[in-house]
Structures are given as structure tokens and as C-alpha cells.
Amino acid sequence: MAKASSPKKMSSMRKSEALMGYLFIAPWLIGFLVFVAGPMIFSLYSSFTNYDGAFTMDWVGLSNYRRLFTTDQYFMISLKNTLYFAVFAVPIGVAVGVVSAVLLNQDIPFQRFFRTVFYLPKILTGVAVILLWMWVFNPQAGIVNTFLRFIGVDNPPLWFAAPEWSKPALIIMSAWGAAGGMLVYLAGLQGIPKQLYEAAEIDGATGARQFFKITLPLLSPTIFFKLVTGINGALQYWSTALIVSDGGNGGPSYSTLFYGLRMWKVAFTESRMGYASAMAWVLLFMTLIVTAIQFYVSNKWVYYEGERR
Amino acid sequence: MASVNMDHSELTRSRRAKTLRTWLWKGFVVLLLLAISAFIVFPVLWMLSTSLKANEQVMVYPPVWIPKPLVWANYAKAWTVVPFTRYTINTALYAFAVVIGTILSNSLAAYGFARLRFPGKNVLFMILLSTMMIPGMVTMIPQYVLYAKLGWVGTYLPLIVPSFFASAFFTFMLRQFFLGLPEELMEAARIDGANEGWIWWKIAMPLSKPALATVAIWSFEGAWNDYVGPVLYLTDEKLYTLQIGLALFRSQSDIYWQYIMAASVVVMIPVVVIYAVFQDYFVEGAAVSGIKG
Q1: Which of A167, B53, B108, B150 fits as disulfide partner to B57, beta carbons 3.0 to 4.6 Å?
Q2: Between A2 and B214, whose confidence is greater?
Q3: How far apart (Å, rounded) are the C-alpha atoms in residues B169 and B150?
Q4: In whole angstroms, what is the distance from residue A79 CA to residue A95 CA?
Q5: Is residue A303's pLDDT more than 90?
Q6: Chain B nearest-CA residue for A236
Q7: pLDDT classification of B288: cutoffs 50, 70, 90
Q8: Which of B131, B109, B113 is nearest to B121 (CA)?
Q9: Element housing A191 (H / E)
């Protein structure tokens, strides 16, 4: 048998296994070098230049970064819009997901039917859904404003046509999509041992108490995971605005000019690749800092079973 | 326990009170679920209803939910105003290529990380994990520059070729699945002289159908729904995808919402069908990997 052969044979087997290993991961390794690492080095370098995507690429030092934080008003507008979206969409998304999962986890009739309905927003995606919402929020004949007029609101919001209502409309859209996020929480809920609830029942703990003392703590790792990915996703939220604001101009009144949309325009409409690269690196650092803060704070509220505290 | 001291009638009364409370709670949950379901379903019904309306009924108040007559011709009209048939063929070929590339490259890399030993594996895997943190927008600009230098802008190559080089997310997901496969089977095959390529293709892949189906569905959905990539790289109108077609259609015929909704319904259908068909596989695969919901 192979196992019993000489050490020299073993090491040559080990060598051939290692070779196979590198061959197997080659698709990832090559892709990483060519499509991620290489481009990132190039991007970092060009963020210190006035690269225009063609012939000009002169070193300008920190001036791109300095301009971003001092004179570029669109940078600040896009940053504010993105934070506005993240601050509302992420917590609402988590709350919708957790509440949906808890309700769908109850022993009730039509459970399978309800689960299918709740998963529907995850399946309906793409430009079609954005158009669907533009029609739902249509100021004249959309179903939302029809309903608002029916209940007596005389001047319902203009939604995507009004600067103060375009972001709330996008947040409602994302809350609708978040219902499908219940699947992950549902899996988390089903991992909570039933005996815990039985014991709490015997001790006379109310349903609300059980929810806050058992369900939420044991679900906290899932919530934390969804928070981290949700915030990162929200910081990169912009492609919907490309469709919602005509021709991706970020309107009305720059209210949907999200960070990514601004970057897209700087890079591909204005051909200021160097400046857009600086924006990309600022975004990367913001992502890293926000994630690091979340991991730091998570020690205080995320409960891991089997961990000593 | 308190009930020990109760006589018979007291016991049934408290039991009755408890079942009553349970029923009230269940009724409340069902009502709440119905309310949320209505919020989820109404926009979709509104879309379907609009797609079948005659022009006079689209903008009327109070709104009509069941159009009279049902104008099925809206679908035919929407489909011919813009060359959607060509866009469908383009999008299907593009999505098909991406699914093949994603499955092959990610399962290869995942098998390497899950089942083989080689120096530097842990460091490389950490690098793989950390690349999931990098916003796609950071690499978008330099990748565009790269494809422009290669002369790929205006073709499908920038959209398809990268899928043949494994991505962090799917590799991680498949690795988790491969780690759970029984080692005995593979060891037996090795003793019989099988090489790792054979084991990957003949043992690991067939045992991983749920996970592979999940990867296939998500990568298909990603390609089918991608808007930013095609808009950035495709310049020739003949090569446009359905998503570009839809967005263009909207900006050209902003007042004919019945046609826009009809086209939207048709474009959404393939993804819905795929989810319905692969539902069982998908639920299993998603539960094992447990990453995305």
C-alpha cells in the first residue's frame, strides 16, 4: 500500500499532490492576479495621476484626494446621499428580515404559501423590477398615490420626481426586497434548540421575554453577518439610480447622485480615470473602517454559542 | 407546579384559556403575514394588471384591477417595437456561457482548496476571503482600462471571460460543500489509481448537485439581470442584452406603461421559472452553504 512505502516515495507523492493543488486553484489564482491584484495596483497608482483613460498620465501627488475633500461639492453630495440611504435601508432591511422570519417560523396554517410569497422579491430582480417600482410610484396614476388620494391625502409625494422623496422611494423599494432576506434568519431560528423555549415556558417567561432573551441573542451572529454585508452593499448602492434618474444624471436635484453613480460619471462620462480611482480608494478605506468598527463593537452584542465570556 | 393543587374544573379552565391564547396568537400572526404578503404582492399584481390594459384604462381613477377587455396584444406589440427577440438570444447565450465558466472554474478551485494539500494553501485562502471585502467599483475602472487595451470593449469578452476565472464567493461556497463529502470514497478511488481530475469530475461533482445547482441559478440570474456590465462594454446595438433593451424601451416610450410592464413581465419570467424548477435543489444547496438568502 502507498501509506507503507518509503519516505522518499511519500515525499514525491506529496509533491505531486501539491502540484495538482496548484493546478486546481490556478483558475482562481490567475484570475486574482489578472483581474483583481494587477488592476488594484494600477488603480492605486493612477489615483495619484491625472489619467484620462488615453494618453495623459502625469503624477499629481495627493491633489486628487485633496480636491475630493475640499472643493468637490458633488463628492460631498454623493457621500451624503449614500449615507442617507445606508442609515435607513440597512436597519429597516434587518428588521423586516428578522420579523418576517420569526412570523414564518410559527406553527401556522399556509406556512409554505407564505414562505413562497415572502421569497418572491428575491426572485423578481433586474431592470424590470425597477421599472415596476417607477410605475408603482408614478405621481399621477401609480398605485401608491392612488391609494394616498383615496385615504384623503390631497397632494401625495411626487416620489422619483421630487428631491425630498426620491430616496425614501428607493428605501421602500429595498425594504420590499429585504423580505426575501428572511431565509437566512429562518435557518438561524431553526438552529435554536427547542428545549430552551420549553425551559423558559416552564419558568413562566412571556413570549416577548423569550424573544428578547433567547431568540435575539442566539440570532445575533446571523444579524451581525447581515449587517456587515448589508452596510457594505449600501455603500456600493448606485446602479438602481442609473435607471431611476433619467440617463443616470442623479436627479432630481442630485438627490439620487450616489457615490457609485458619481464615480461612474467621473470615470466613463468625463474620462477622469485618475480622479475616479481616488474616489474608489476612498470608498475602499471607508468600507474597511466601517467593517473594522462593526467587528470591534460586535464583541459587545454578538453572542456565540460555546464561547466563554 | 401550581396545577397540582387545582381541582378538575380549574385545570380544564386554565387549559382552555391557554388554547384560546394560542389561537389568538396564531390568528394575529396570520393576519400580520397576510398584511405583509399584500405589501409584497400588490406591486406585482399592479404590474400584471397594467400589462393587460387598453390605453384608456392605464391612467384612469379609480384604478381598474381587472382590465376589460384583457389586451393580450400589448405583449406582442411591446415585443416588436424593440428587437427583443434578438436581445433574448444575446442574453441567453451570454448567461449560458457565464454559467458554464462559473461552474467549471469555481468547482476546480474549490476542490483544490477543500481536498488537496499544498504549501501556502492557508495564506492563499485568506487572500481569497479578503478579496470578498473589495468593492466591485474599485476594480471596475482598471478592468475597463485593461479590456480597452486588449481591444475587448464592444464585445462580450469582458462580460464572459472573467467568469472562467473563479470568484471568491462561489469558490468559498463550493469549498464548504466539498469539505463535507466523505473522504473514504475519494481515498478508495486514489488507491485504485484514479488521479485527482477524475475524482473531481466523477466523484465530487456528481455528489454536489445541490450546491452546483445553486451556483448555476445565482450565476445565471447575475448574468441575466446584469445591467451595468453590458451598458459599459457593449456599444453595438445588435449585441444589446434584454436589460439594456428594457431600459431603452422605458426612456423611449415613457407614457405607454402597459407596453413597458408587458416587456418587464416577459423579461422576468425565465428567472422565475428556473427558481421554480430547481427549487428543491436550490433550498438544499442554500441551506448547506448558508451564505445568501
Answers
A1: B53
A2: B214
A3: 26
A4: 24
A5: no
A6: B135
A7: low
A8: B113
A9: none
For residue B2, the model assigns a pLDDT of 47
Chosen from B41, B49, B100, B118 to mutate, greatest number of chain A CBs within 10 A: B118
- State yes or no: cis peptide before A156, omega within 30 of 0: no
Q: B181: which residues sit within 8 A by CB, 6+ positions away?
A: B203, B204, B207, B208
Contact B243, A126 (CB under 8 A): yes
Instruction: With a cut of 50, say whether residue A5 has pLDDT above it.
Output: no
Question: In whole angstroms, how far apart are CA A100 and each of A115, A123, A140, B24, B33?
Answer: 9, 17, 32, 19, 8
pLDDT at site A98: 94
pLDDT exceeds cutoff 60 at B125 = yes
Percent of chain A surpassing pLDDT 70: 95
In this complex, do B39 and A176 lie within 8 Å of one another by their Cβ atoms?
Answer: yes
CA angle centred on A65, ends A63 and A68, rounded to 5°:
110
pLDDT given at position B286: 56
Question: How many angstroms away from the CA of A183 is the closest CA of chain B?
Answer: 5
| Interface predicted TM-score of the whole assembly (ipTM), two decimals | 0.88
How far apart are alpha carbons A280 and A65 in whole angstroms?
Answer: 11
- Residue B285: what pLDDT? 56
Give the amino acid at B5: N
Chain B residue numbers touching A114 (CB-CB < 8 A): 33, 37
> Of B1, B14, B87, which is closest to residue B263 (Cα–Cα)?
B87
CA distance A264 to B264: 25
What pLDDT does B7 receive? Answer: 62
Instruction: Give the number of C-alpha atoms closer than 13 A to the C-alpha of residue A269, restricted to the C-beta side.
Output: 10
Q: Are A128 and B270 in contact (CB under 8 A)?
A: no
* Model pLDDT, residue A180: 84
Please give the Cα distance from A48 to A60 (Å, whole number).
Answer: 6
Q: Sign of the C-alpha dihedral, residues A41, A47, A51, A52?
A: positive
Question: Between chains, do B109 and A284 touch, taking CB under 8 Å as contact?
Answer: no
Which of A15, A22, A24 best tests the B interface by mutation, with the highest count of B CBs <10 A? A24
Q: How far apart are the first and last CA of chain A?
A: 48
Domains of chain A: 2-46 (no CATH), 68-301 (1.10.3720.10)
pLDDT digits (tens, 9 = 90+) for A258-285: 999 999 999 999 999 999 999 999 999 9
Give φ, ψ of B27 to 5 degrees: -60, -40
